[in-house]
Amino acid sequence: MSGSLPFYQKHHRHYDHGYRSRETESKLSQYQTSSRYTAGSSTSATRTSRGLKVSSHSGLEASRLSPVLKRAKPTYLAVDKENQIIGYVVPIFRGSQEFGFSNTEEARVRDTSAYMARRDLFTSGLEMERSEQISRREAMRESAERISLNKRIHEHGEHFKRMNEDSLMHAPEFVIKPRSHTVWEKQCVRLHCTVSGWPDPRVVWYKNNVAIDPIGNAGKYKLESRYSVHSLEINRCDFDDTAQYRVSAMNSKGELSAYASVVVKRFKGEIDESLPSPRHGPVSEYGINFQTHIVDKFGVSFGREGEIMSLGCTVIIYPALHHYQPEIQWYRDDVLLSPSKWNHMHWSGDRATLTLTHLNKEDEGLYTLRVTTKSGYETYSAYVFVKDADAEVERAPGAPLDVRCLDANKDYIIVTWKQPAVDGGDSILGYFVDRCEVGTNHWIQCNDTPVKFARFPVTGLVEGRSYLFRVRAINKSGMSRPSRISEPVAAMDPSDRARMRGTSAPWTGQIIVTEEEPAEGVVPGRPLELQVTEATKNYVVLSWSPPGEKGLEGVMYYVEKCVSGTDSWQRVNTEIPVKSPRFALFDLAEGKSYSFRVRCCNSAGVGEPSDPTEAITVGDKLDIPSAPSKVVPTRNTDTSVVVSWVASSEAKELVGYYIEGSIVGSNVWEPCNNKPVKATRFICHGLITGEKYVFRVRAVNAAGLSQFSPESEAVEVKAAIGGGIPHASPAPPYGITVLECVCDSMVLAWKQPSFIGGADITGYFVDYREVIDGVPGKWHEANIKAISERAYRVSDLKENKKYQFQVRAANMAGVGIPSLPSNTFLCEEWTIAVPGPPHDLQVREVRSNSLVLLWKPPVYQGRDPVNGFYVDIKEEDAPEEVWRGVNNKATEKTYIKIKNLKEGERFVFRVRAQNKAGVGECSDVTEPVLALTKPGTKEIEVDVNDDGIISLNFEYGDLTPDSKFVWSKNYEEITDQSRLTIETKGNKSKAIFNTPGEEDIGIYSCLVTHTDGASSSYTLSEEELKRLLEVSHDHKFPIIPLKSELAVELLEKGKVRFWLQADKISANGKVDYIFNEKALSQGEKYKMNFDKNTGVIEMIMESLTPADEGTFTFQLQDGKATNQSSLVLIGDVFKELQKESEFQKKEWVRKQGPHFIEYLGYEVTPECCVILKCKVGNMKKETSAHWYKDGREIKSDEHLGFTEGVLKLEIAQISKKDAGVYEVVLKDDRGKDTSTLNLTDQGFKDLMNEVFSFIANSSTPLKITSTDQGIRLYTFVSYYNDLLQVTWHYKDSAIAFSDRIKSGVVGEQLWLQITEPTEKDMGKYAIEFNDGKGGLRRTVELSGQAFDDAFAEFQRLKAAAVAERSRARVAGGLPDVVTIQEGKALNLTCNISGDPVPEVTWLKNDKEITSDDHCILKFSSGKFASFTITGVNMSDSGKYSILVKNKYGTESGDFTVSVFLPEEAGGKKK
């Protein structure tokens, strides 16, 4: 096919020969025109990569290069199994010279060949042989040059292949993988591999999944990469280099790894227990930064023994590479878990799952999922709690846990365990240890009596066999369930394992090699270092070291004991010596002291005994730990509480602590953990929200459980501020800025982390790195010791270099993750004249309409010192252009109170500093602040106590355990308490002024840490200080406060009462009564009374005499508090009081008979009736009441029949005739009383004005109506009185009435008539009722539409009236029926009216008739119409009508004519 190349191939050089380089074209031309001899050619070698056929040309075609017979085509390119070109091969030449001839030798050979041809034609055979020899040499030379050319062409093609990445890219592949090595220590080892792939893969070497850093381990590792061959050289191997090594190749198409192991051997006795260092921090490789997210997480879980539990998380890794797999690891309490029958682990590609197949209390703990990638790792942790299974016997204890074998020998195995948290309600009596040989199901109890010590040596084992162990607890109620079985352990002497040449010690993984052979026929020496390693009342364990001689044959041991105080040594193991250098002795007498020694023996004999041990008394050497103390619970989440405590003061070999919790008042204690924890802090989960709990703790070691600690204070279960993580490391800081820059240092500032971890931040750490050409370098520590401020000068920088910075915060929980790298800053000295930006902006005291903004001055002052600050504000979402100033004049302070904020709006702030040169750069903008007063917000309150001490008090209800009250003056923390003493108790804090004075004037504020910004301030001004000092003086020198000063009042019978009331006085208070400086005492004239409950003090006098004129004083005393009050009664004041006293006495006498309680008065009802009434008292049946008017009796009431009531006299429709003097007289045998009411002149006028007021208030609004005469304004009242005076107003002027404008009254209607109104009558009208008090006015506006409507209605009514007056009418004169005799004459006349004169028409039976001789019709004078029939006949009977009509209307009159015959008339008469 000769078809053209597709467009995407035309632009790539390796698809077109025309793009070959000039050098290549020259070489091809030279070979195409050169010698005819060739040894062969290389055809095109082809290979396929990802579906694209690529040809690698040799540069020569066989048809052009070789005229002779074609030979086999040799190829000199090295290819792999898939024909991928990976290099070239130089052929081995067999000529005299390895690589052909030089130019001189070549010419000589050619000349020799021609000469021989001309000289001796007959020697053609020899010539042919020599010619073939020359041809072979030339062929070899050409082949070598061709190979060189092919290499250059291949490299040239490979170069252009790189230009077409899209079609040639493929994932890395290992052509040669690294192989494993086993070496001795101090040797070097080299691992190498060959990797292909496009783009060129990046290769990284790992040791135990930790990237190898050759720079960080200078001289240890050497990495090389040449021509796709990569190698790792490890220099002078030591045992720590024993590891699995991984080489990882990665490009944009994928990642591939290969593995090799290196085992480093060493001789026995050189074992190093150290392990390889863990990986320190994440490593980002291949230019790809993996982002790992753990989602769909498992939470705190609760299970029960015997159940199955699965924990799982979904893991998202970006970018997702098909061949890349992360490393998934599970940890329990920071211990890596391995797959086992108890733990099943599964990774599905996006979800990691851990299945606990059979829960036991050993499975309780903090589970952590760790996902490791090349860019670091992510972890997630949650706690798993495992409760005891239900006991088989009620109140039996829980099962022991964590059964392990501490030591394994051919003679015995020491089994240890941990005591359970649940004892079933009764103390545990001890434990039974069971064993089972591996491969059987037969369990054998090892001890006959229970042991209390949680450690027991098991004997009677068969050497070489493996065993399993379990433990059961017992109390008086019964036996617990058995514990989880231990791992299998072999009954074998450790020395047997050590003598196994070339094997791996299972507890270290190290290769141990021994070269010695045992010596024969030598008696061993003394054992060394004999000691008692463990002693209880049940057994004693001895251990020792073998004798110093090496190579002894089959050493064994005899153990001997001796009771202290004797020299009798008794061999313990008389039958069989032990092979291991340790031994357990049982059946020792408790309380006795023993010494022990050991002898070595072998086939050659028994050696000398070791040095004896010191005397040891049989008994428990390990004491039960003391109880913990100071248990403090703190809130965590809504279902958990953090419990901390002080560790046991005396605790050896402590195993851990058990925590129990109880709902307050229930007395039921539940374990919070079923596996001991070693820390002194634990989070108790699974609590009931809102309930109050108390907690207690006890310690545990092998000897047993301690007593419980004292109970904690009660704590309510609810979430704490800070998300329920009271002790987590802080979040990263943010907002890193530069405050000052000089030639070799920068001052940085940053913002506090949004989450501080629930504990105070103790400091910050700053890192920096240099940025060269946009490429960041390595991070370096700027400070080793934590700094407390959020600003720091980073020194030792290089001028004109660029740097980035990061900051980490630290608290008691640790150092948090670093912040994001800052912007890149240039280190150059600032020379600007204006100051730098202020920093560390803080917002305090946020309220609905105000807040306080604090800041720190700029570090860089500029050319001149800073002399003021400006504050800017804007709404959060507002554009930058709307920043506005808070203060027009610069403030010298570093704080400002911003007022007049809009409630519910979010604001941001910034600050600028100024000096003489001008205003500097703005600070960073604050976080948005919501202007809203939070519920429960309280302010600082000032208080002065009874001793006159002035204090500021602040209270906050929602404190966290770490909250603190921080007091400041002028927003600087108070550290010197010489003038102010601060006391804090619970949720209240108090700042007490020691000696208040002018030095204390200022703004005092209090901030509560670890809250949502709770703070308040109080301004102590000069005036406020003066007021407080006065109050303080009053408290120091107290005065008994008085609710009322000394006063006087009159009682019945004219008695005089002097009294006052103290606001606060104790039962010990006393009073002195003074008159004119003389003390008064109780007697007939003076009656004193002091009610200490109410504080009322009184003195009563029967009457006043002239001798009583003067000054009365009450003097009070209550402890050190005093007070007095005086009342001066002299002159007119005394005379008036005396007169009133005498009047009251007379009044009392009057009231002994019938009397008026309320004297005669009047009342006006809404109906405008007047009622005269009085209230009377002390009445009886015989009492009479008589009413008089002007001296004449008008009414008499006899036998009233009530003791107290009201007498009434009603006057309806009052008028002038009712004026007069009214009198009521009460009398009976006890006396009489009179009451008079004058209703004349002014009295009657006042009464009528009140009546008029009722009438005015009852009036309706003024309305407008029209008549045929004009417009009428009117109002209605509920009652009209002829004496009522009203005034009509037009435009606020009284109306002068005339014939055209009149007023009047019709019933209860008051009206104003405007006859023939015109536009001049338009305006505001009013009617004013005069009631003597200002009156009442009703108004209406007669103008505009109202006037137009009224005037139009008037015109209509007027026209209707005219039409009604002028329309045609039949006034009368016509009867209804006329009965007439035939032959008689009939004449009827009626009156007609109308203007104009109406037309008259007569009708008979609804048909018009006209005048003729028989019926004469006349209409005269326009007023009279006559109807005459000259001679009536029967035909004239019928209904007749007269119809009158003019332009205003029509009217008719009807009558009926009945004609009868004379005979009919006679018949009727009969």
Structure description:
The structure is a single chain. With 1470 residues, this protein is mainly beta. Strands 6, 8, 9, 12, 13 and 31 form a six-stranded mixed β-sheet that branches. Strands 50, 51, 52, 54, 55 and 56 form a six-stranded antiparallel β-sheet that branches. The protein has a five-stranded mixed β-sheet with strand order 15-22-21-17-18, with no helix packed on it. Helix 4 packs antiparallel against helix 5. The longest helix is centred in the N-terminal third of the chain and has 39 residues, at 124-162. It is elongated and about 195 Å long. The chain starts with 6 loop residues before the first helix and ends with a helix. Mean pLDDT is 82; it is low at 1-107, 268-286, 500-516 and 722-726.
Give the CA-CA distance, first to last residue. Answer: 157 Å
Biggest sheet details:
6 strands, mixed
Total strand count, please? Answer: 104
Q: Compute the number of helices.
A: 12
Low-confidence stretches: 1-107, 268-286, 500-516, 722-726
Shape: elongated
The SS-based structural class is mainly beta
**Backbone CA Rg:** 63 Å
Provide the β-strand percentage band: 35-45%
Average per-residue pLDDT, rounded, comes to: 82
Percent helix: 10-25%
